[in-house]
Amino acid sequence: MRKVLVRGLFTALVACSTGASAQVIISEGGQPVQQGQPQQGQPVQQGQVVQQQPVQQAPQPFVDQQPQPQPVAQPVEQRLVRQLSGYLSVPFMLTDGALFGSSPSNPADATVGFGLHGRFGWEFGMIVLEAHVGWMIMAVDTDSTIDINLQNIWVGLGGRFQFLNRSRIVPFLSAAFRANFFVESVTGTGTSSSGAYEFEPGVMLGGGIAFELTQNFGLEVAVTGNVVFPAGDTFDELQVFLQPWLGATLYI
To answer: Do 231 and 199 meet the contact criterion of CB atoms below 8 Å apart?
Structure first.
């Protein structure tokens, strides 16, 4: 009986030592080889289960996933194409301004005056087609005690070339045909009279600067040179006068 127990104990010790030696096998590089994992260069036998070790990935840096605000595109300001203007002017003669029928013994020369006019323009890029209508009155220098004024109602058709740029200061040049209707007004002591309107064709050339303060409003300053051709009975010969003016423009 004692021999049987010793033999069983010896058998159990051998089995335990064999199982423990089978758990870890030292490879040639000194690294342990897990049980069931074939060594490098050895074929995997049929029925042998290969246990893969989990691969630990490097931790990824934290990235803020919140959407970044996108810059808002600024709307492009569109130019308005219609222009409506009003002006004050001070016309004055560059030539003698001699009225028809005047003479050295009986002079009657137009000199300086005051004017109002309006303008409507339609813009096509740098070109503006425009129409004018205005009124002006000029004093007449005579040796008589009778006061004589020369009035002019006129309309014009033409255009301007505006030098558009990135700023709100826009220089321009203008030209137009001008139809003048002159009339002499005589005033005395308690009486006044006017003659007939005389058609006198003319042209005007000018230049100025528009200060576009906002998209809808601007100020303008300019000067025009006006030539009047003697077609009626207002002047004896061709006359030239300047007309500086200041005004405001609505862009609509």
So the answer is: yes
